Amino acid sequence: MEQVTPDFRMALKYYDRLFDLLTEHKKNLFTTLIEYRTNHIAWLADNFYHEQNSSAIIRSADCFGYNTVFVIEDKYRFKVNEEIAMGAQKWVNTVIFQVGNVDYGQAIHAIKQSGYKLIAATPHIDGLSAENLDIRKPICIAMGSERHGHHPEILEEADGFVAIPMEGFSESLNVSVTAGVLMYTLKKRLKSEGIDWQLSDADKKRQILIWMLKTIPSAQKMVERWIQEEAN
Question: To which H or E segment does residue 51 belong?
């Protein structure tokens, strides 16, 4: 999840003050769209090479209301193209693990410690379809690199596999297309199967605060000033 720093916890005290600075349009937008966000299913972009795919998975996550995308950077840096993402990177929490600072095992452990079972999306191992995947408990779906597929540790540590059946000569879809298909199908299931998938009231407030800090001009500096004034 989005890491909470002491300053972030302090900023929660000024939630109402920041909210009053939003336009009426933004207030309505934030309070409406937060009802569609979920952390019940998260996504992992494993060492993506093309910024088109990096950008597309972030944009798709936002479009379908997914709140969190984990990223492992190994050989390649995760780049988001503004023209493709259309600003979606402001609305989706990305948690980046850089290999060198951590290894794959540590990254996987951190994701599982966050409460997720790890599900690898791959056409090369028999996996369940998106319609049959068990989503009663939180899962994180790992999407492999376009060039190399999944790192071996992802496959070794996966708690399960998911696949989209192919009926043509091509053995697989583009990684961002695969993510989009899975995101749509799984969100539809979340909304129809009686699963408690929405954010808690506390997490809704935290997420709107994150959005406000990213969108209100000089919001961080204002919060720092308010904290300093209170300290004095």
Answer: helix 51-63
Q: How far apart are the first and last CA of the chain?
A: 33
137 domain residue, yes or no: yes
Annotated binding site for S-adenosyl-L-methionine, which residues?
Answer: 164, 173
SS3 96: strand
Q: Are 148 and 155 in contact (CB under 8 A)?
A: no
Tell me if 61 is assigned to some domain: yes
8-36 average pLDDT score: 93
Annotated binding site: 164, 173
In a domain, 56, yes or no: yes
Residues of the domain holding 142: 39-198
**What is the spatial distance between Cα 144 and Cα 120, in angstroms, rounded to a whole number?**
8
What letter does residue 143 receive in the DSSP assignment? E
Give the total number of structural domains in the chain: 1
Residue 230 lies in a domain: no
- CATH number of domain containing 152: 3.40.1280.10
**Cα 105 to Cα 126: distance, rounded to the nearest angstrom:** 23
Is residue 4 very low, low, confident or very high in pLDDT (cuts 50, 70, 90)?
A: very low
pLDDT(121) > 90: yes
Give yes or no for a contact between 153 and 120, defined as CB atoms under 8 angstroms apart: no
Amino acid at 137: K
> Token match 């996996």: residue?
127
> Which amino acid makes up residue 135?
I
- The burial of 32, by beta-carbon neighbours within 10 Å (0-12 exposed, 13-18 middle, 19 or more buried), is given as exposed
Distance in angstroms (rounded) separating the CA atoms of residues 141 and 149: 14
Helix then strand then coil, % of the chain, to nearest 5? 45, 15, 35
